[in-house]
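Quick one, probably user error.
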């Protein structure tokens, strides 16, 4: 079975260990995917313009993009190491754009039978205002994935 696993910097290794308890990863074809949310770069530019009255220079935006690529590669390397320890193998993908859309599209393009995502980790100082949410990315994938989705709650991933 081909399984797409959304990997974030914070919880990638924990997600894989939790997933292996639920579904043995050995013998499945895993696609580890990390998506760089490029919308954040636009928000950084807007905040900078609002406070400093000038846009962020292109060289600085390029540095931000390079740092994001490096963080994504590190997250995927860590996830691959966990997968290998569990006796499985995986390919990896780094995408850029809106994470939910990219993960849902990637699941269809790669012919995945299952998508696995973790819910957003909640604040350590207690719940914020409003109802607890699974997060924007997980909600989008749940609503738009071309195949079944396994959602692992943030509390299970973070060990709380």
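Nope, works fine. Designed sequence:
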């Amino acid at each position: 079975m081909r399984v797409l696993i959304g990997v974030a910097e914070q919880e990638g290794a924990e997600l894989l260990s939790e997933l292996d308890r639920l579904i043995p990863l050995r013998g499945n074809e895993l696609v580890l995917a990390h998506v760089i949310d490029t919308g954040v770069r636009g928000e950084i530019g807007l905040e900078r313009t609002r406070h400093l009255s000038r846009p962020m220079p292109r060289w600085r935006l390029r540095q931000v993009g390079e740092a994001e690529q490096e963080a994504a590669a590190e997250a995927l390397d860590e996830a691959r190491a966990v997968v290998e320890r569990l006796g499985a193998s995986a390919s990896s993908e780094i995408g850029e754009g809106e994470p939910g859309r990219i993960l849902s599209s990637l699941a269809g393009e790669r012919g995945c039978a299952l998508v696995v995502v973790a819910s957003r980790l909640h604040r350590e100082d207690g719940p914020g205002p409003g109802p607890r949410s699974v997060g924007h990315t997980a909600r989008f994938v749940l609503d738009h994935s071309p195949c079944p989705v396994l959602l692992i709650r943030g509390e299970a991933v973070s060990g709380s």
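The two ends are 30 Å apart (CA to CA).
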